[in-house]
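Appendix B. Chain record.
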Amino acid sequence: MEGVQEDKVAAWLADFIPDLKPPLEFSLIAGGHSNLTYRFVDQSGTTYVLRRPPLGNVLESAHDMGREHRIIHALRDSPVPVPPTVGLCRDAEVNGAPFYVMDYVEGLVLHDAETAKTLSAAARRGVGMDAIEVLARLHLVDADAVGLGNLGRKEAYLARQLKRWNRQWEASKTHEIPAMEESSRRLADAMPEQVGATIVHGDYRLGNMMVGDGKIQAVLDWELCTLGDPLADVGYLLNSWVEPGEEAPPTGAAELPPTAAGGFPSRQDISACYEQRTGRSLEGINYYRAFSHWRLAAIGQGVYKRYLTGAMGSNRDLDLDAYRESVCVRAQAALSLLS
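C-alpha cells predicted for this chain:
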C-alpha cells in the first residue's frame, strides 16, 4: 500500500495495541486531497484509521500530525464528537513521515448528494441540525480548559489567515489569477473587528463528518484547526450548504454537494440555530463567506500543484483542468461577494 510501510507500522502499533493481530490489511479511504487517511483491519476484524501527510514535498507548516493528534485528543471529553486516539508516531523512520492512529468510528461520510440520498429525509434534517449544533458546541468550548489555549494566537485571526494563505498562494502559484490579488486587497480593507475567540475547525462541512442515526458521530480532518474568529467556520459551512436547484460551489469535482439532495435544513434555519445557541450575530456573514472562497482558492492551488508534481501519489483521479478552473472561479466568487 503506497504511503504505508506495513511491517514497520504493525511493529510500532504493538506497543499501543497489545492484542493487535497482524498482518494488517490497509486500504486508502476515498475523499480529501491533503493528508492521507487509511483504514486498516487486523486478523481479528478490529478496524482502525491511520493519518499521514501527503507523499513527497509539502508546504512549510502544513500537515503537522502531532498538532492534529493533540487537538483530537484534547477534545475527547468535550461535547464535540471526535474519534478516540490510539497513538502518535513522530519518528519518520517508521513510515517515511509522522502519523497517528485512531479508532474507527462507524458511520457514513456524506461526500456528495448521491450518498446523502441513501438517508431518509428525516435523517437528513437531523444530520443538518446536529451539524450546526455541534459547531455551536465547538465554539463554546473553553480552549484553555481543554489544554488548547496555546494552540495559536487568539487575536487578529483574519489578519493572520490572510498573511498565511497569501504566503502559501505565492509558494504554490503556477499561473496568474488577478482575482486572487484583488480579493486579498479587499479582504484586508474591509476586515471586520473580531469579537471573541474560539477553537476554529477550519474545514467544517458534512464531508468531514461520520454520520449515523441522524446525528454526527465524529468530526474529522482537524489539520486546519486553530484559535480565532468562529464566524469563519460559519461562512465556510454556509458556502458548502447548497440548496436544491442552486448552482454548486466550484470544487473541480463532478459530484453535487450533499445538501443538494434536499431534505436538509435551509441556510436560514442553521443560521438562526447558530445565532440562538451562541448569541453571535451573523449580520456580516458575507465577508466571511468571501474569505472562505478566497482561502479555498489558495488551498486548492496548493492541491493542484501537488498533483502536478506527484506529491499526492499515483493513480489518483482528478481532472486537472477542471481543478485549475475551480481555483479561478473560487477567487471570482470571493471578489463578487466583496463588491
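Further analysis of this model is presented in Appendix C.
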